[in-house]
From TrEMBL:
HpcH/HpaI aldolase/citrate lyase domain ranges (all copies): 9-222
A Pfam family this chain is assigned to: HpcH_HpaI
Keyword Metal-binding in annotation: yes
Protein name: CoA ester lyase
Molecular-function GO term, any one: lyase activity
Keyword line: Lyase, Magnesium, Metal-binding
UniProt cofactor(s): Mg(2+)
UniProt entry tagged with the keyword Magnesium: yes
Superkingdom of the organism of origin: Bacteria
InterPro entries reported in the protein's UniProt record: Aldolase/citrate-lyase_domain, Citrate_lyase_beta/mcl1/mcl2, Pyrv/PenolPyrv_kinase-like_dom, Pyrv_kinase-like_dom_sf
Organism for this UniProt entry: Comamonas avium
Length: 286
């Protein structure tokens, strides 16, 4: 898995058959761009969308190709096998990997990895109850880079009617975060915010995701990218505190010490080190 995919904070969806949208998305600040063959493409356009994406990718630089993922159609659909065959060509051309919708069985992930090859990173999109039941096996499958939560489809599958704050989904989100940690994956990717005009709503969703342990957000509009980056990148205050913690622990030669009136020990040091690593990476992104 690339360093970019591991640390990415934003994953922007675009319809794969609208090549102008893909070019615009890659010119945006989005860390990763997901060219969508699933929900964004009508059944009659599926085959054309495959060829459109393949043709467009071949015109991109290697750097841009490395920012592209493709969301294929689910294994339960008639388009899945055709998608995988073209995915193999896209991975050979240098795209980062694949988002697997309705991920429920590890056998599907194995089949995709076998066909697409070892360079294909897999992001299972957990959006059904069956997918939640299979979290342990999905997260441990070869070539899985990160888990993503498709909370809208999950609500439908589970028969839920969530309030605006989606408090009913807190246990589900936490299960995905914990599964990612147990499998030593990069932090999970939270689902979309459908309100593209309300940055306050987007900020609140990202803040909740950050507090719970997610490391990124699925986005459906370029305007959402800046909010995601601001939230998932450490603040100046957090960086200053982390630097103070590291310095204090060095002076204490690894022993317990106090910073700003609070005890600092090994777990606090590890958190500070991760904060500084995230800050360095965010500063390096254009």
């Amino acid at each position: 898995m690339s360093d970019l995919l591991h640390n990415a904070r934003s994953f922007l969806f675009v319809p794969a058959h609208q090549t102008d949208r893909l070019h615009k998305a890659l010119k945006s600040a989005a860390d990763m761009v997901i060219a969508d063959w699933e929900d964004a493409v009508a059944p009659s356009d599926k085959a054309a969308a495959r060829q459109a994406l393949l043709g467009t990718v071949q015109t991109l630089s290697a750097t841009l190709r490395a920012r592209v993922l493709v969301r294929i159609n689910a294994a339960q659909t008639a388009w899945h096998e055709g998608d995988i065959q073209v995915l193999k060509q896209l991975v050979a051309a240098g795209i980062a990997g694949v988002v697997v919708p309705k991920a429920e069985t590890v056998s599907v992930l194995h089949a995709i990895a076998q066909t697409a090859g070892p360079a294909c990173a897999l992001i299972p999109l957990v959006e059904t109850v069956a997918g939640m039941d299979a979290l342990a096996s999905l997260s441990a499958a070869p070539q899985v880079a990160r888990l993503a939560f498709g909370h809208l489809d999950f609500q439908v599958d589970a028969g839920m009617q969530c309030a605006d704050d989606e408090g009913e989904l807190l246990p589900t989100r936490m299960a995905i975060v914990m599964a990612s940690r147990r499998a030593n994956l990069a932090p999970a990717i939270d689902g979309v915010t459908v309100d593209t005009k309300d940055s306050t709503h987007m900020d609140a969703d990202c803040q909740r995701a950050l507090r719970m342990g997610f490391g990124a957000k699925l986005c459906i509009h370029p305007a959402q990218i800046a909010v995601a980056h601001q939230v998932f990148s450490p603040t100046e205050a957090a960086v200053a505190h982390a630097s103070a913690v590291v310095q204090a622990m060095e002076l204490a030669q690894g022993g317990v010490c106090v910073v700003n009136g609070k005890m600092v020990d090994a777990p606090v040091l590890h958190l500070a080190q991760r904060t500084l690593q995230r800050h360095v990476w965010a500063q390096q992104r254009p």
